[in-house]
Design goal:
9 helices; 246 residues; 17% strand; seven-stranded mixed sheet; globular; single chain; 29% helix; two-stranded antiparallel ribbon; 9 strands; alpha/beta
């Protein structure tokens, strides 16, 4: 076996082709094996969001789903995120018309841009983000939409969890900086196998990354994780997948 350099084994780019290939493999495995993840009709009139962000082409724009044709009521991705102190881009009564007319990708904070990019890479047209799809300073709209929050996540095709970001300005498709020690073992047939070693504190890395990130310090996000049928999380050292079967 030819030795491979570290960079070819643990790739630092969570948005690169290898990461995207892994995400698609997880989705395909879920779609083919998980009965409980595929028995929901998210396009029904009672469970479909009132507004969605159409990311299919520039400019980005909010759409009122009541005006969509049946064939346009497609699956959507939901974003689970920490707002933090960066609340510069939301939908309000004074901006709803602008959101419906269209706006530039560059206007969005980094976490939203990352979510748009990933949704496009998965060839999904619609994205649901609470701060954009709910009119934040309209009490009546907030009351109605917040009461349906469980439906927004449980009926989403996939929920993206920005686990490592404590603020929408930070994004979640950052390059990973972690490094692992490695040793090479040469077997009698001269085959060399490289093993990467995690320190003791990281031996339970999946749970520390997926449960202890900034996102999961917020009580509000608990329902988003538990009700979603599929969660694709981005932590500081790894991506992780959770669904009702795997």
């Amino acid at each position: 076996m030819t030795e491979q350099p570290y960079s070819s084994v643990v790739r630092p780019d969570p948005s690169g082709p290898t990461a995207l290939k892994k995400i698609k493999q997880w989705i395909e495995k879920c779609e083919t094996e998980c009965t409980h993840c595929n028995d929901i009709s998210a396009q029904s009139s009672t469970s479909y969001p009132t507004r969605l962000l159409d990311v299919s082409q520039p400019p980005l724009r909010l759409v009122l789903t009541a005006s969509l044709k049946p064939e346009e009521r497609l699956p959507y991705v939901a974003l689970s995120h920490c707002w933090g102190g960066n609340r510069c881009f939301t939908t309000q009564r004074g901006t709803i018309f602008k959101r419906l007319c269209g706006f530039a990708m560059a206007d969005l904070p980094t976490t939203f841009r990352d979510a748009v990019s990933l949704t496009r890479s998965l060839n999904i047209r619609y994205l649901w983000i609470d701060s954009l799809c709910i009119i934040q300073d309209d009490r009546q709209d907030w009351r109605i939409e917040s009461s349906r929050m469980c439906d927004m996540y449980s009926n989403a095709y996939l929920t993206i969890a920005a686990t490592l970001a404590s603020d929408d300005s930070q994004g979640f498709l950052r390059h990973r900086q972690s490094k692992l020690a490695c040793i090479d073992l040469i077997y009698p047939d001269q085959e060399t196998i490289r093993f990467f070693l995690q320190p003791d504190k990281a031996s339970n890395g999946y749970y520390s990354d997926s449960c202890d990130g900034p996102l999961h310090s917020r009580a509000w996000t608990l329902q988003e994780r538990l009700l979603s049928r599929r969660v694709l999380g981005f932590a500081s050292n790894q991506m992780y997948w959770e669904c009702r079967g795997h």
